[in-house]
Amino acid sequence: MSQRMNIPEHIAIIMDGNGRWAQQRGKPRNYGHSAGVDTLRKITAECARIGVKYLTVYAFSTENWNRPAEEVKLLMGLVISSLDNSLFDDNNIRFRTIGDKKRLPKDVQDTLQGLEERTKDYTRMTITVALSYSSRWELTDCMQKIAYQVESGKLKASDITEQTIIENMNSGFQPDPDLLIRTGGDIRISNYMLWQIAYSELYFTPIYWPDFDEKELIKAIEYFNTKQRRFGMTEEQVEKGL
Description:
The chain has helices spanning 18-24, 29-50, 69-82, 85-91, 106-118, 135-151, 162-167, 214-225, 235-239; strands at residues 10-14, 54-61, 93-98, 125-133, 179-182, 201-204. It is an alpha/beta fold. Strands 3-4-2-1-5-6 form a six-stranded parallel β-sheet, sandwiched between helices.
């Protein structure tokens, strides 16, 4: 990796392709999900090593509750098994979650809360796992919070700003992603961080998530480095630093 490469402060990932990866090998889907957990550990450690400050991964959407009950049960079990304490301790990584956690099994909720508390002082990088999450859920939840504040007289409707919305969003504790990566070959966002990726660079790869290694991560960052991020300005304004 070039020493001059600009490392995104925040990378968001849609980890797709576990099931298809397993099926190509004549294995059950859970084989792919287990392999995907191993990939997540490796990519998390690599992101911390190269200087990414925030990593947000889409692990389980609100729509995933519609999957077969056995697969949902397996995925919940993998959530628990994937939270390897040494990964966070050895790499000084803070763990956080976003999503409708009330829908998660009680043992999963307890494990997540315990790990968030235990790693709250870690500072090298923050990994946020989106569980029982969708952007439409997050925006609905945010609107309800703001509506309650208006109803109670704590906030005037005319005072609502973009910052008000950000502060009331489940993920409001972190900056917007600079780079969104989706593995697995599909070119869509799948209800993931729709507000936050307004100006993110989008990188789609046909590589299934279990095969997405450190070299593939660098390819995505190299792609990010080819983009001029203008945020509505002209090229000339960006080049002049306006």
